[in-house]
Amino acid sequence: MAYLALTGGIGGTKLGLGLARVLRPDALSFLVNTGDDFEHLGLHVSPDVDTLTYTLAGASNTALGWGRKDETWRFMAALEALGGETWFRLGDADLALHVTRTQMLKQGATLTEAIRALSARLGVAHSIIPMSDDPVRTLVHTADGRLSFQHYFVRDRCRPQVTSFEFAGAADAAPSPALLELLPTCDGVIICPSNPYVSIDPILSVPGLAAALKACGAPIVAVSPIVGAAAIKGPTAKMMAELGVPTTAEQVAEHYRGLIDGFILDVADADLHGALGVPTRVRHSVMVTLEDRERLAAGALEFIKELSADLRPTAPLTIDDADDQGNCAQ
Ligand code: FO1
After folding, report:
1. Which pTM was predicted?
2. Where are any strands of DSSP class E within the chain?
3. Which of 160, 242, 266, 270 is deepest in the core (most CB within 10 A)?
4. Torsion sign across C-alpha atoms 169, 101, 60, 121
């Protein structure tokens, strides 16, 4: 069995780690948001890819939630002394990753190739795939005007009131070839409890990507990032309120309507079980310990297996059947 996890940001990475601990590298790949990527100080920074990479490598800064553990900050101190831009902090060891990736990209590697090589060098055995090799950049439309994602998120600390989102470049982007290669053997897709608007939607904005996920016929299960009326991590609930939608798990399920085959609710939202127009399961989804992450991962996989039994025909498929279902294994 082989699974694909869609993720971006710190909340999604928590479940990503749980999945990586219960599934061998040949049974799990990650498809990661690169809408947060940006050129900073002349370097290609890929925050969501790097947060996942460091986490799977056992090298993450758990206090910050991003960057490397045991980090030093001499570069930032020197930059500050020179009057450079310091609103986005790059640790000394983290800097080495951005420099190397930028160099690889300049020498002609695709983002998929650069991530594959660098994650392997950091000791990550699971496959980390960017949503696209083409630049797609999340722009946040706010009451204060249009902001690039990192300006909104880090420099302005998510303070501006959000009105909508734009994924610049998406129309001309293609899914990473590595994704299209693995989909024919995919048995289940997990949408991690990442921010639906700025972590998962950029992935789904790549033309043909959502259709390819759907067409491979494997169950797609999302884990709610909203518990009660609050986001487990980050600005999801604040964004929903500003967009004028209810800050509920039900609304997240609604957001993914047409894509997902199942939705995992937290125990705090057990009253919504069976009431969302999509099959649901109730699990403890607030991940504090490593065991919490593994337990939720196992719960998501169990749900996918149950859904597979419902979605997949029991009789073997004929070639005509596969054509009718748009089966991507052709
Ligand atoms: N987040 C911050 O809040 N402040 C920072 O200075 C910062 C630097 C940074 C450097 C490298 C990196 O990979 C991530 C970094 N992040 C920082 C996190 C990042 O901005 C966000 O977590 C994601 O883009 C949102 O998913």
Report:
1. 0.93
2. 3-7, 28-32, 38-40, 43-45, 127-130, 137-142, 145-148, 162-168, 188-191, 220-223, 226-227, 230-231, 262-266, 280-283
3. 266
4. positive
Query: Among the atoms of ligand 1, which is closest to the Cα of residue 48?
Result: 26
Pick the closest to residue 98 from 271, 20, 160, 89 (CA basis). 89
**Domain annotation for the chain: domains and CATH numbers:** 3-43+126-308 (3.40.50.10680)
User: Who lines ligand 1 at CB under 6 A?
Assistant: 8-10, 36, 45, 47-48, 50-51, 66-67, 88-90, 94, 150, 153-154
In this prediction, residue 312 carries a pLDDT of 59
CA 125 to chain centre: 18
Query: Mean pLDDT across the chain, nearest whole number?
Result: 94
pLDDT over threshold 90, residue 323: no
- Beta bridge pairs of residue 140: 147, 165
